Amino acid sequence: MPRLQLIALRSPRAGPFDLSLEPGECLAVTGPSGAGKSLMLRMIADLDPHDGEALLDGRPRAAMPAPDWRRRVVYGASESGWWLDQVGAHFKTPPVEAATALGLPQDIFARPVASCSTGERQRLALLRVLALDAPVLLLDEPTGALDPEAVLRAEDLLRQRLAAGTSILMVTHDPAQANRVGTACAVLEGGRLQVATLTR
Amino acid sequence: MTTVSLSPLDLGAAGLLLAVEAGLSLVCNLGLHRLVLIAVTRMVIQLLLIGYVLRLIFSLASPALLLLAIGLMTLVAAREVAARSERQLRRQGNLMVGLASVTSATVTTTLLALTTAIRPHPWWSPQYAIPLVGIVLGSVLNAASLSLDHVLETVTRDRVAIETQLALGVGYRQATGPLLRAALRRGMLPIVNQMSAAGLITLPGIMTGQILAGLDPVQAVKYQILLMLLLAGSSVFASGLTAMLALRRLTDGRQRLRLDRLILATAPTVATAIASMRADWRRRLQR
């Protein structure tokens, strides 16, 4: 039984999408801007009205309260949102170890969000998503604002999760990243997913 | 109680200062006299008209007429609440939210006052009910419109923060909780200001009017306190309910943030609002 299964997920602006994702699998989705990549992720996370069904370990999404679904199929948007002043207040327990692995300074959780750079915020947002220990992650350009070294550190973290059985659906603009992290690859064009091959 | 009765001559004397100013404007070519003249004329005609209408309603003492008058006042207040914000909820949402919160806050407060503190005979006596509804409506209108405007403006601004929380599995109610509290506080500001300034910075209008009309100051103060309490109660009620109802219209069964239900548009007039409500009901009846 696949971890995540999409059955004709569609809105007037994108889809239909049919796919299944196994535990430990990472599907890297590329495609031109405006093709509907973020719309697809938002649909899977049930953040926009749409048709179709999604299943987690065979359990239909409609049978689950929306917050329960979103806690298990977590969407990390490309633009991170912050609703409290302090970084640490956005975490139940600050993941200090993972933060160090991503090259973030030790004191970052005590700082105000406003003092963090774009790259720091992006890494913090990734940590916030990972902290939920969800079986499925929907990541929208998770390393878009990072320097090359930080990108590799973030990818290491993602590969650890994959090895532990997490399934990831990742939107990226970098074909090299798709090759480094993805176990499968697809191109989204004209609102449809086309399976592509990894160039390994 | 001895009331001081005013003759037209007395009122004319009060307008003397304005007349001098209008004359100055004419002489110095300020172009203000027309503006002031129109405003004064409108004010006098509107107030005289309402005076005679009230006299008629009071003398007829008909519950149906009273209900009609209160209904009209409420409808106009609800439209004002709906019109204050630049953003409009789809399907006349602003008007519906305004109508629901204005009506329930006003009816509850007025009924409470009429059956406990004031107790006229009969309890619905228009002479008490109408002025009470009027003053409560004024403060409810303030509270509800500020609260609605705050929700509709802030929810657009805070969209990313709210949706990030939803995406992390936080419920809609929790994610929008701070917004609800801020809107409630915003709606209460005018009455809180009014209460803290009362007696120190300003002498409230009702009290001033009663003292001028010859009532003992302490009696007038007691009346003012009663009114302030009623206005504060209705303000909290109205701004809280308005924010709750507006936020409820911005979500759905799957706890999404539905900003597609919000449009930048000009406010509806009473006529178009009624027309669209009728069309809506006809559609529902046909189903």
TrEMBL record, chain A:
<dbReference type="InterPro" id="IPR003439">
    <property type="entry name" value="ABC_transporter-like_ATP-bd"/>
</dbReference>
<dbReference type="GO" id="GO:0016887">
    <property type="term" value="F:ATP hydrolysis activity"/>
</dbReference>
<dbReference type="InterPro" id="IPR003593">
    <property type="entry name" value="AAA+_ATPase"/>
</dbReference>
<dbReference type="GO" id="GO:0005524">
    <property type="term" value="F:ATP binding"/>
</dbReference>
<keyword id="KW-0547">Nucleotide-binding</keyword>
<protein>
    <submittedName>
        <fullName>ATP-binding cassette domain-containing protein</fullName>
    </submittedName>
</protein>
<feature type="domain" description="ABC transporter">
    <location>
        <begin position="2"/>
        <end position="198"/>
    </location>
</feature>
<dbReference type="Pfam" id="PF00005">
    <property type="entry name" value="ABC_tran"/>
</dbReference>
<keyword id="KW-0067">ATP-binding</keyword>
<dbReference type="InterPro" id="IPR027417">
    <property type="entry name" value="P-loop_NTPase"/>
</dbReference>
From TrEMBL, chain B:
<feature type="transmembrane region" description="Helical">
    <location>
        <begin position="12"/>
        <end position="32"/>
    </location>
</feature>
<keyword id="KW-1133">Transmembrane helix</keyword>
<feature type="transmembrane region" description="Helical">
    <location>
        <begin position="64"/>
        <end position="82"/>
    </location>
</feature>
<dbReference type="Pfam" id="PF03649">
    <property type="entry name" value="UPF0014"/>
</dbReference>
<protein>
    <submittedName>
        <fullName>Iron export ABC transporter permease subunit FetB</fullName>
    </submittedName>
</protein>
<comment type="similarity">
    <text>Belongs to the UPF0014 family.</text>
</comment>
<feature type="transmembrane region" description="Helical">
    <location>
        <begin position="39"/>
        <end position="58"/>
    </location>
</feature>
<keyword id="KW-0812">Transmembrane</keyword>
<feature type="transmembrane region" description="Helical">
    <location>
        <begin position="128"/>
        <end position="148"/>
    </location>
</feature>
<feature type="transmembrane region" description="Helical">
    <location>
        <begin position="191"/>
        <end position="213"/>
    </location>
</feature>
<dbReference type="InterPro" id="IPR005226">
    <property type="entry name" value="UPF0014_fam"/>
</dbReference>
<feature type="transmembrane region" description="Helical">
    <location>
        <begin position="94"/>
        <end position="116"/>
    </location>
</feature>
<feature type="transmembrane region" description="Helical">
    <location>
        <begin position="225"/>
        <end position="247"/>
    </location>
</feature>
<dbReference type="GO" id="GO:0005886">
    <property type="term" value="C:plasma membrane"/>
</dbReference>
<keyword id="KW-0472">Membrane</keyword>
